[in-house]
């Protein structure tokens, strides 16, 4: 197997069987040429947005000409160029580095069968936190063309002789996620939790502060309360002692009176 290089791709473009439409044969000498050293750059043609209502811009029957993808949002792209590979050529498509480094993820680049005829379709996701603008004519994919050592017995166009139906359908766009990582939904949940937390804090912080203040006052008042208790206990003890002494004196007096009564009377002198 061999890889086609720039002048070979240009020669095919100048022949009666070009590899791709919308690609001039002499556009292979500059840094921004569509024909690079060993690849061909494909560009954005039509743009479709998952979840778009039927008939509106971005739907299957009404593609957009330009759109901006927010973080996590997706789009389906059809290339402007139409490829036409013969049965001895295969291709490999992949995102160019200047696109990948800006955070645009392509979910389905890969192998192109010998004999394939048609545009390429890809789903892209903006994995950057910055908006990504998609415009017609912007480079979106690079293709390597590989010349095969053998010829397949049943290339793509033999296996599928009928025209390829358009894969971009309402069903497809309805199945794909508009927001791949649910950024808006997650942000809404986070905001809701923050509001609830703020409400709880606004409710319980004053209660907690009041409780701490009361505990502080009680703690400060504790020595004074203990002192008052001691004073009261001392007074009670004095009173108890006093009443005990009085009771004892009363009992002694009663005993003295009883003794006096028991003494014999002194006889009177005649």
Please give a structural write-up.
Strands 1, 2, 4, 6, 7, 8, 10 and 12 form an eight-stranded antiparallel sheet that branches. The chain folds into two domains: 178 residues, Deoxyuridine 5'-Triphosphate Nucleotidohydrolase, Chain A (Distorted Sandwich); 80 residues. The chain contains five helices and twelve strands. The termini are far apart. Helices cover 38% and strands 20% of the residues. It has 270 residues and is an alpha+beta fold. The mean pLDDT is 84.
Question: First CA to last CA: what distance?
Answer: 173 Å
Which percent range describes the beta-strand content?
A: 15-25%
Number of domains: 2
Q: Helices and strands: which structural class?
A: alpha+beta
In total, the number of strands is: 12
Q: Average pLDDT value? A: 84
Integer-rounded radius of gyration: 49 Å
Number of helices: 5
CATH topology group of the largest domain: Deoxyuridine 5'-Triphosphate Nucleotidohydrolase, Chain A
Q: How would you sum up the global shape?
A: rod-shaped
Instruction: Tell me the CATH superfamily of the largest domain.
Output: Deoxyuridine triphosphatase (dUTPase)
Biggest beta sheet attributes:
8 strands, antiparallel
State the CATH class of the largest domain. Answer: Mainly Beta
What is the CATH architecture annotation of the largest domain?
Distorted Sandwich
